[in-house]
């Protein structure tokens, strides 16, 4: 076991807090919903990039290559100045949603080069405009402002450690300090130990407060002469009175002035530690000697060993580097996300129990939500907030390097502090009540299979716990998005973002309502995923047999509703061989009213989802004769409506062709490598099925690695044979 894997194990067992520190700062906190306190909900206009250097944030912090503890109390990031820009470079710049050609867009070059899952080693590249020399480099340490909003009764302290020598050391203390009339003497919470930032080379230390510069922004006196942009004022504008001469505050920077010759480089060394400075100055200097270099080399070597262990041996050096940097980007994408929706709404004057309450601009029905966790972000600048369905896909990559973190991400979205009491999974902070594709069951079983393949054992307890919460979400979909109760679903934009012909989340301009082919297909996939989870739990003696029947039956009725065989108003168009949304509009006021229906002939790649299907394999049918018997009964009941979708796997489907795009990949080397591998294909043998668009995850025992393809009599389909089981797609396009 390599060193990084050992750290992951110790973190999982609670023996060490290896994940307490990491790249948990956002890259953009301004312009977010959380920081928006405007009357009209104009988040981009209310808190701008220009204000960010002077205005204290309410719900989080941002920075260049930012690092913080897991609750984002103590933060560290890089600040730069090239002696020419009008402001200190403390955060990335980009265009707002209304300024960019396609929405918000960062306008800087930066790269995530490396990171281990515990962040024992990280590497980041930022391309600063090289137009002037020398450079001012200011590694900055600060506390997130929690005291101005009454969340913290004591104000933390950053101060210079007084020493006889010229060494530069900053102490970060969480200790009693009076704030707004509060009594002193409050004991710091356990774990908030004093930490020390050691700066090599004895740079000048600049101190100010992480407080809003009200005079610059609002034209009123600030609470303190030393404000958030004090270091900017000192370095860029030469205002010596902008920093605290007593060298104390809640924000501090180590001011290096560096001249870099052409083709050369300069290295700045800093060390954040809970070890107090030694009495002798010689020992302080030794902290940046051989021991510092040895530690960096050791962490780099351990990172190499970790990625070598998870990289497929068949990869070339270049491909392995691409994989490593891609995964490093996922590691850098972690962010501490804080959002107390109830308090935020209360601060907007929308107390749900007030007699004359205001209606909130957004998220008014989500008072139960309290988010304060490390979450994987789609993009820490463009999307510095989680999107639940994006997260489900991100989990697959995260599981490759840190299965525990991947499973935790799915757990978060299913917790009572996230999931709505009615069972809806939150979408994203702009509108938690929006509807995203239901992919969390897919991510759950996929994650389970990946861990099973790597270690030889899946986490059944986690699978069972997730299954129970997913049942709540599935029920929400059935109760809220099946308007007519006939197993066809709506759902709004469902991940199409701004590429749809019209906004499916808004009422139709022509009136009526929309039955969505992709929404219905997503629910068919949801049924398949839940059926597989239930089957796996039944095979592990963890219950689930009855749920196999439930979701099998539900899948068949949904598939039947999509076909509408012989009905001109159904989603399936026999001539085009394609599924379409159907628009319904009512005419007249009588009962029953006259309803007209028409297909919306819009095609896009997402429509391929409707072509996926599933079946139980032979081993499962023999192990559970009761479900198999009921499946046969269900087949007889709906056979007249969708006979082509209910065939034993050995029967050919004459006159139909299938979507088939095999993607064969091997799981990275691991303890379970000799026992299992992963194959992605739409026709595979084995145990429970997972259908995802035109791909299926399969765990194949070693003895089944030798395969043969058998061509069926009609010559139109290929069946992947192995032993006595096979799986084929149930839907396809008719061939003339």
Write up what this structure looks like.
With 736 residues, the protein is an alpha+beta fold. It has two domains: 22-313, no CATH class; 435-734, no CATH class. Helix content is 29%, strand content 18%. The chain has 17 helices and 29 strands. Helix 11 packs parallel to helix 13 (460-481) and helix 14 runs antiparallel to helix 15 (545-563). The longest helix is centred in the C-terminal third of the chain and has 23 residues, at 517-539. The protein is globular, with a radius of gyration of 29 Å. Residues 177-191, 588-592, 613-618 and 643-736 have low confidence and may be disordered.
Count all strands and give the number.
29
Number of helices: 17
Beta-strand content estimate: 15-25%
Assembly of the depicted chains: single chain
Mean pLDDT: 79
Number of domains: 2
- Binned, the helix content reads 25-40%
- Main β-sheet description: 6 strands, antiparallel
Rg from alpha-carbon coordinates: 29 Å
- Describe the strand arrangement of the main beta sheet, using strand numbers: 1-2-3-8-14-12
What's the N-to-C terminus distance? 58 Å
Shape designation: globular
Uncertain residue ranges: 177-191, 588-592, 613-618, 643-736
Based on secondary structure, the structural category is: alpha+beta
Give a nutshell description of this structure.
This protein has 736 residues and is an alpha+beta fold. Helices cover 29% and strands 18% of the residues.
Question: What keyword list fits this structure?
Answer:
five-stranded antiparallel β-sheet, alpha+beta
Blueprint of the fold:
Layout: H1 3-12, E1 21-22, H2 43-46, H3 49-52, E2 64-69, E3 74-81, E4 94-95, E5 105-106, E6 109-115, E7 122-127, E8 135-143, E9 157-160, E10 168-173, E11 195-199, E12 204-208, H4 214-218, H5 230-237, E13 248-249, E14 251-258, E15 270-273, H6 281-286, H7 290-310, H8 317-332, E16 334-340, H9 341-347, E17 370-376, H10 388-401, H11 403-414, H12 440-455, H13 460-481, E18 513-515, H14 517-539, H15 545-563, E19 572-573, E20 578-579, E21 581-587, E22 594-600, H16 618-623, H17 625-642, E23 656-657, E24 678-680, E25 691-692, E26 695-699, E27 708-710, E28 719-721, E29 733-734
Antiparallel strand pairs: 1-2, 2-3, 3-8, 4-5, 6-7, 8-14, 9-10, 9-13, 10-11, 11-15, 12-14, 16-17, 18-21, 19-20, 21-22, 23-29, 24-26, 25-26, 27-28
